[in-house]
Inverse folding.
């Protein structure tokens, strides 16, 4: 079925584990890194189980993409994103009653509307899917309080499995998801977060401009340079151009047209470097990025790993380098403290805590990969042999140069269940 509808030869690692568990009626939490094909994990069970699959998703663009992809495969789907008139609602009910399976995408804010209640009462809902499940945890980096109300649905939908998926979840976030969704003895399927082909490194208190140019000269190929502010993006684009390096800017303050132009120039290799804020990312996939440089320090480890992970998607050697200057820390700190006003106290406190992890990552003289994977709750050897810290130790200890320290084993994905 996957082949005829999705055109893939086989399932990617761990997808099958998730699908089997959901179809067997178990509550399932899938932790799969970006690009791991998460939506398939609830779409295939939805088709196999039949009836209505209710999908809760935080982003309108994500919902619309998935709905049009399903409809393109001849599968009934609809997203409740805006006002739905009585006529359209009646039409949807009719489509549901005529389809063997139907996918209904809902933003958490719409979950308790009268129309959704009607569907829960009159249609056969057989699967509850929660996309980007880390949004339920105040420890996650995209906390959405409305996600906490999802568990109220379980009273009306007792006896059906719940499938929650996410790409970033620390052990604490996992516990939060399980607790807040009231998952019952869930199967937790965990993919490896390791990206062994990326060499991670950090520079502290350095002359950022010289450091960046040095990296650009030493490495060839496409580059993403991240800054935390729009002004910073403009300044760096200019600095690089003055140094004779082709660079384009990308941030949310630019017009759609100007942003599109930058993106196209970089995707078509007309420009080597794209200088961007975190607005750059969603849906942009260039596999041959050789270097991701951060001159602006990210606010969370989740954001850092997601952005750094744009390097080397083709599996070939790539680098992720973080430059930490006093200015960059100050600039991030002011973004964190911008959360002003009543009720913002907890948001600010959370942002400070999440940022502290990034600073600790940069400050400590520990293997970078071990630190990152540890943050995401994955065991790995204390030395990876392919980061600045490990390589510096190897140099100083004069270890046999014949040994291949760059061959890092990928930890196999494993399943475990919470007791
Ligand atoms: Zn290392």
């Amino acid at each position: 079925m996957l082949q005829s509808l999705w055109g893939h030869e086989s399932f990617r690692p761990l997808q099958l584990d998730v699908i089997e568990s959901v179809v067997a009626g178990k509550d399932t939490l899938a932790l799969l890194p970006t690009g791991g094909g998460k939506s398939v994990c609830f779409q295939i069970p939805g088709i196999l189980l039949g009836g209505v699959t209710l999908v809760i998703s935080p982003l309108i663009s994500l919902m619309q993409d998935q709905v049009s992809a399903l409809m393109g495969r001849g599968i009934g789907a609809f997203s409740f994103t805006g006002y739905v008139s009585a006529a359209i609602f009646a039409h949807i009910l009719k489509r549901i009653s005529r389809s063997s399976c139907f996918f209904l995408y809902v933003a958490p804010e719409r979950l308790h509307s009268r129309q959704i209640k009607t569907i829960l009462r009159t249609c056969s809902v057989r699967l509850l899917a929660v996309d980007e499940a880390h949004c339920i945890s105040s420890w996650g980096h995209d906390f959405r309080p409305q996600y906490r109300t999802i568990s109220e649905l379980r009273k009306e939908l007792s006896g059906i499995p719940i499938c929650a998926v996410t790409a970033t979840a620390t052990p604490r976030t996992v516990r939060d998801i399980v607790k807040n969704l009231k998952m019952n003895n869930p199967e937790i399927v965990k993919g490896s977060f390791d990206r062994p082909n990326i060499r991670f490194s950090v520079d502290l208190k350095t002359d950022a401009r010289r450091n960046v140019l040095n990296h650009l000269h030493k490495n060839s190929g496409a580059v993403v340079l991240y800054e935390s502010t729009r002004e910073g993006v403009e300044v760096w684009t200019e600095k690089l151009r003055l140094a004779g390096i082709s660079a384009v800017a990308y941030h949310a303050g630019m017009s759609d047209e100007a942003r599109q132009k930058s993106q196209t120039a970089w995707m078509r290799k007309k420009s080597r470097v794209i200088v961007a804020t975190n607005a750059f990312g969603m849906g942009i996939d260039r596999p041959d990025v050789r270097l991701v440089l951060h001159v602006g320090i990210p606010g969370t480890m989740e954001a850092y790993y997601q952005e750094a992970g744009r390097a080397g998607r083709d599996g070939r050697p790539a680098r992720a380098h973080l430059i930490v200057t006093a200015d960059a820390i100050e600039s991030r700190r002011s973004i964190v403290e911008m959360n002003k006003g009543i009720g913002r106290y907890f948001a600010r406190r959370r942002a400070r805590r999440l940022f502290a992890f990034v600073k600790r990552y940069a400050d400590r003289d520990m293997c970078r990969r071990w630190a990152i994977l540890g943050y995401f709750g994955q065991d790995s050897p204390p030395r990876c042999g392919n980061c600045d810290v490990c390589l510096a130790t190897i140099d100083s200890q004069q270890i046999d140069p014949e040994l291949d320290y760059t061959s890092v084993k990928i930890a196999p994905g494993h399943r475990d269940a919470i007791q």
